[in-house]
Amino acid sequence: MSERDTLHLAHLEALQHAYSALLEAAGIDALWIYSGAPMSHHGDDQYPAFRAYGHFVHWVPMAELSHSWLLIRPAQPPLLQIHAPDDFWHLPAQRPDAAWSRAFEIRLSDDAAPPDCSATHRAVIGDLDAQQAGAMGATLNPPALLDALDRGRLHKSAHEVACLRDANRQALAGHAAARQAFEAGAGELDIHLAYLVASRQRESALPYDSIVGLNHHAGVLHYQHYDLEAPQQRHALLVDAGHRERGYCADITRTWAGPAAPDVFASLLEAMQTLQRELISACAPGVAFVELHQRMHYALAAMLIEHGVIRCSIEAAVTGGITRAFCPHGLGHSLGIQVHDVGGKQNDAGRPLPSPATDPALRLTRPLSPGMVVTIEPGCYVIPMLLEPLRSGGLAAQIDWSLVEQLAPCGGIRLEDNIVITDTGHHNLTALAQQET
């Protein structure tokens, strides 16, 4: 058995213990976890790409399984029922033969109904309605249990960290190919296709829709289109793209200056690389992520002042909202089975930790602790709808609008690495994977 197999089985054993304790505390004898089912487009017979429910994938590294069930009972092996009907339109699901499957009782079934269970106190979690849960005699999605399970996904096992590191390695191969395509003069679609080929994945397997933004498109935070033709001038490229490994998601962003970029953009990009390294270096147990996010804004203000983009003080730039016009998103988020993974906005007791009023987009609000995996992704953009209100405000004279116009064709900068918090500090999974490629 390989070391990776050993880690995976240890992960499953820890899950069994954790679930048994939670179910006992909740007075639940048996828990069904439903993988989910694809939903067709309205009025159509086509389905978008399917991804199984996160708590199902936490146990079973097969995110493509639909209509399948897990039955968890204390002191018993988990039962995995895989929906595998006879089908000549599609290839039916197969019984897994990997080492991790030894931890389960596995059944293949042509029936999408849940496996039978004689337990008295039952619950079910997943995308079901009350009528379905009622027919099972089960409580549907009990909030306290779901909160506890979400918190259980926040801290990753050694197996999960290994999967994330592998996902980073594959994603980085895609980013290298995207950069090569950009430097060769390719357009957005061809850059995207180069990413898919090098990262060895089909589009439907991506953990999220890749963002491939040339020039001013890099200033659209979740840019969703690909131009078919290459632009006449190449100012900049931003690629935010990942990879999924055994259900776990890499989430990496890179920005590159093109031959048409002004010198100030290339200098800002270099400064942003330095800033990202400094923010990563600060990651350690006990660090308040909200404060680290605030540190990003003060550093961004200093960077913009140093480059002549703004003329006011650092404090005025932050408190006056200038830096948030240049960077409206949060510093990062929890990462795992979901790209924006669960558990990042509640404390250890399950009480909510809402985002600050000044930063509603911040997706991680709790202090860092060992086992957490987070993204660190500072940004700086020229987004007209956010900057335009500043032209008529009291701080308008504190912004060099001619420099803003020079930067506008470049869109923006975002740099994103995946960081695991350790007992004494952190490991940069993206940098470690880079060393292995």
TrEMBL record:
<comment type="function">
    <text>Splits dipeptides with a prolyl residue in the C-terminal position.</text>
</comment>
<keyword id="KW-0378">Hydrolase</keyword>
<dbReference type="InterPro" id="IPR048819">
    <property type="entry name" value="PepQ_N"/>
</dbReference>
<keyword id="KW-0645">Protease</keyword>
<dbReference type="InterPro" id="IPR001131">
    <property type="entry name" value="Peptidase_M24B_aminopep-P_CS"/>
</dbReference>
<feature type="binding site">
    <location>
        <position position="240"/>
    </location>
    <ligand>
        <name>Mn(2+) 2</name>
    </ligand>
</feature>
<dbReference type="GO" id="GO:0102009">
    <property type="term" value="F:proline dipeptidase activity"/>
</dbReference>
<dbReference type="InterPro" id="IPR029149">
    <property type="entry name" value="Creatin/AminoP/Spt16_N"/>
</dbReference>
<comment type="similarity">
    <text>Belongs to the peptidase M24B family. Bacterial-type prolidase subfamily.</text>
</comment>
<keyword id="KW-0479">Metal-binding</keyword>
<dbReference type="InterPro" id="IPR036005">
    <property type="entry name" value="Creatinase/aminopeptidase-like"/>
</dbReference>
<feature type="binding site">
    <location>
        <position position="377"/>
    </location>
    <ligand>
        <name>Mn(2+) 1</name>
    </ligand>
</feature>
<feature type="binding site">
    <location>
        <position position="416"/>
    </location>
    <ligand>
        <name>Mn(2+) 2</name>
    </ligand>
</feature>
<feature type="domain" description="Xaa-Pro dipeptidase N-terminal">
    <location>
        <begin position="8"/>
        <end position="150"/>
    </location>
</feature>
<dbReference type="GO" id="GO:0004177">
    <property type="term" value="F:aminopeptidase activity"/>
</dbReference>
<feature type="binding site">
    <location>
        <position position="251"/>
    </location>
    <ligand>
        <name>Mn(2+) 2</name>
    </ligand>
</feature>
<feature type="binding site">
    <location>
        <position position="333"/>
    </location>
    <ligand>
        <name>Mn(2+) 1</name>
    </ligand>
</feature>
<protein>
    <recommendedName>
        <fullName>Xaa-Pro dipeptidase</fullName>
        <ecNumber>3.4.13.9</ecNumber>
    </recommendedName>
</protein>
<keyword id="KW-0482">Metalloprotease</keyword>
<dbReference type="Pfam" id="PF00557">
    <property type="entry name" value="Peptidase_M24"/>
</dbReference>
<dbReference type="InterPro" id="IPR022846">
    <property type="entry name" value="X_Pro_dipept"/>
</dbReference>
<dbReference type="GO" id="GO:0006508">
    <property type="term" value="P:proteolysis"/>
</dbReference>
<dbReference type="InterPro" id="IPR000994">
    <property type="entry name" value="Pept_M24"/>
</dbReference>
<dbReference type="InterPro" id="IPR052433">
    <property type="entry name" value="X-Pro_dipept-like"/>
</dbReference>
<dbReference type="GO" id="GO:0016795">
    <property type="term" value="F:phosphoric triester hydrolase activity"/>
</dbReference>
<dbReference type="GO" id="GO:0046872">
    <property type="term" value="F:metal ion binding"/>
</dbReference>
<dbReference type="Pfam" id="PF21216">
    <property type="entry name" value="PepQ_N"/>
</dbReference>
<dbReference type="GO" id="GO:0008235">
    <property type="term" value="F:metalloexopeptidase activity"/>
</dbReference>
<keyword id="KW-0224">Dipeptidase</keyword>
<feature type="domain" description="Peptidase M24">
    <location>
        <begin position="163"/>
        <end position="423"/>
    </location>
</feature>
<dbReference type="GO" id="GO:0005829">
    <property type="term" value="C:cytosol"/>
</dbReference>
<keyword id="KW-0464">Manganese</keyword>
<feature type="binding site">
    <location>
        <position position="416"/>
    </location>
    <ligand>
        <name>Mn(2+) 1</name>
    </ligand>
</feature>
<feature type="binding site">
    <location>
        <position position="251"/>
    </location>
    <ligand>
        <name>Mn(2+) 1</name>
    </ligand>
</feature>
